[in-house]
Amino acid sequence: MSPRDERRSRRDHAADTRLKLVENVVDLRVAVDAARASGRTVALVPTMGALHDGHARLIEEARAADPDALLVVTIFVNPTQFGPNEDFGRYPRTIDHDLIVCGRANADLVFVPDVETVYPGGIDQPACVVEPPASLATVLEGAIRPGHFRGVATVVLKLINLAHPQVAYFGRKDYQQLVVIKRMVRDFHLNVLIRETATVREPDGLALSSRNRYLSDDQRSAAVVLWHALQAATAAVASGERDADRVRQILRAAIDSTPAAKLDYAEVADASTLEPIDRLLVERPAVALIAARLGATRLIDNVALDLPS
Ligand code: PAF
Description:
The protein contains twelve helices and nine strands. It is α/β, with parallel strands linked by helices. It has two domains: 195 residues, 3-Layer(aba) Sandwich (Rossmann fold), CATH 3.40.50.620; 95 residues, Pantoate--beta-alanine Ligase, Chain: A,domain 2, CATH 3.30.1300.10. The protein is globular, with a radius of gyration of 20 Å. The model has no long low-confidence stretch (mean pLDDT 95). The protein binds pantoate.
């Protein structure tokens, strides 16, 4: 489909629902300013599209939290958060389907900017960026995907500045991203409340992800090992395990038991600072994070390691 036909198709879809489709900054600002002037809250759900039930749940939760809010979903595949050898070019773009999901989940407005709109100077020109602290951004995903969280933080700041929301929603599935965004909001005094929503899972426990569609049938069956590993860790902690290294071993052993899955990392970290911890303590909330490859597809997942107080 040519870009022009694609734009026409998007508009046709939006016209079928109460959804307003916006592709430029002026129209976005007009809608947002009008909502705020009339006393409505603006709620933002940033996405890269390829929307699945996890995104639908995020939008539905935002709607349920405030039935009167102007609920803005952004769909933008952000080039600056992809490394040179990553899947930016083949990242799924399913705009017609996405608009249907947004309409059904009762979003009001979908902002679908192009790269020039979000990056006015282009992405190859020197520009201001958000540099999250290395302790958050160069570990775990950041160690494997250098620059990823710079790209995420930069685009999220842009989207917050553009949509001017009072509240923005992010899923716990991308836990490290959530931590980076919360830190940015705190450090830059952004006047926006970050709300986090639970990971949505398939019936067998696999976390929903836009990348699950790349899995072959065999890889899809094997992918549930990430959830099994996290469950094994949770069970060990529930039975009294407090040694974080032992929990890491449990995570690693579970992934290693599935030959189709190759572990990237298995970590037990402080839930706010992502610092690896030695012992699980009631007063220091912790999270178990894992990443594994199924063929060329990397999947990530995490759980909070809650201790009985
Ligand atoms: O989680 C995502 O889909 C993206 O990283 C986000 C937050 C929309 C920024 O591009």
